[in-house]
Description:
The complex is a heterodimer.
Chain A: H1 2-22, H2 30-41, H3 44-53, H4 59-87
Helix pairs in contact in A: 2-4, 3-4
Chain B: H1 3-23, H2 27-51, H3 57-77, H4 83-110, H5 135-165, H6 179-198, H7 203-221, H8 229-251, H9 254-278, H10 282-287, H11 299-303, E1 308-309, H12 312-321, E2 324-329, H13 331-335, H14 339-351, E3 355-360, H15 370-377, E4 385-387, H16 388-391, E5 400-404, H17 413-416, E6 435-440, E7 460-464, H18 467-480
Parallel strand pairs in B: 1-7, 2-3, 2-5, 3-4, 5-6, 6-7
Helix pairs in contact in B: 1-2, 1-9, 4-5, 4-8, 5-6, 5-7, 5-8, 6-7, 8-9, 12-18, 14-18
Amino acid sequence: MEILILLLALFVLSLFLGVELITKVPPTLHTPLMSGTNAVSGITLVGALLAAGNEGSPMLVNVLGFIAVTLATINVVGGYLVTNRMLAMFKRK
Amino acid sequence: MNPNIVNFVYLIAGILFILGIKGLTKPKTAVRGNRLSALGMLLAVVVTLLNINTVDYSYIVAGVVVGGVVGMTMALRIQMTSMPQMVALLNGFGGGASLTIALAEYYTVLGVAPASFAELLIPVAVDSSVFGVGVEGSIALVAIGLTILIGAVTLTGSLIAFSKLQELMKKSYGLPGGPIGNGLFLFAALAALICMVINPGNVAAMVAIVALALLLGLFLVMPIGGADMPVVIALLNSYSGIAAALAGFILGNTVLIIAGSLVGTSGLILTKIMCVAMNRSLANVLFGKMAAGGEKIDADEIYAGKVTSAQPEEVAMMLEVAQRVVIVPGYGMAMAQAQHAVRELADAMEARGVEVEYGIHPVAGRMPGHMNVLLAEAEVPYDQLVEMERINPTFEDTDVVIVIGANDVTNPMARDAEGSPIYGMPILNVDKAKNVVVIKRSLSPGFAGLPNPLFAMDHTLMVYGDGKKAVVEMTAALNQL
């Protein structure tokens, strides 16, 4: 239970931090913000690795893990690359 | 590995994600921010791999190779005009990843290995405390259920959003009951969730949540289309983050919670910005139609005999003597792939000493910031891209406004005609400029289905035709003057 409360505290504080940060992103960068946050949400890869790679698990779990690893990797690789591609285009005169 | 070290590295990864988003607050620091964020991801993944006790790399390698190739291909080949589709797909994959992680965790804890699909549904006799003792177990099951629910809705909802944006699905379908029908689906899914919490071995209840949530995602997005898409994409973006944060609660993983809640708030804030820019509530966008606007407005009455059309050459002569020109792009510019042509016209004007700026409405295009990315691709410097609040006071000192592919966001009825369905929506006050040039295929209405009195004003010239062709002709004519 103690851990749960700690996680909840982390969650709530991150929400407040998120509001403070995101409201400062200018409208010009809203599309890269979305693709960039897509990449960040690929952090589920961490959970996916645990499911896919655990040798002792039933095969169903490994297969579900494989699907999760694939989807999360698309988000991480695709998200960061496309964001980088977009941001490189924003130049000052 | 020592769990303290793992959690410490997760903390560093979380800090790098935060610094990454902080970098996005300025175009100058944005590229570096994105790289810091990617570094955080790398650290989190490496430390996780080192931490798994008995690793079977076959599934991991297969997943990373497939995902890496698909992700790289998408990122490098996508056209900037299609960025809304790409983000829609990524939202969906994020939801799908959280969904499958929650399912994997559920079956891991149950410790069953069903051999066939039918066995997936057979109730398992388990001790009620396998997911945790007392309240803790219930909370764990609720977290699993909610992750499945939100992840599945995000997955199918995003796939529908993608097919709408890609114009694979052109019509809008919805449940007969509208919000009530969707409400029933949500209610049924929550009921199944409660069944699962009461009896964790009730696998059928869990499968029911998956099925109902997948259908709910379809029905939620199918009726929505066109100019409402920015709201849907932003909202699904938020869902994918919330699903990731919930998955963090299931796994007790700190970095998932930090990253997920940042993404969740980002999507929610963008959703709110989009709704405010359309002067509509979120419920109205998701379930409503545009309010029926008092008496029916007859387009012929507004346009009859009052619309002046012009050739690109005439516009070029106007531009030649102008001192300040504002270009207002809309989704039509993306459709016509006219962003490079527009930049060349701006270059030609600037060569003659004309001051050129771009006025960007928050909901122009099909996702937040869509126009900015297109114009950045055409190498328009970002300090010329001016947001609505800052460009509006300057229209009175503007000689010519060129509207290309935008309609509803310039409709003065939103400001002046009380009782109009779009009354109250903030618009770009282009009608305050000395001259307005509208490049458009015809007088057809925009997404709101309303005539635009701007087109009939005395100081407005309509240039009919393909956006790109018209702009290219203007540039050529201007260069010959």
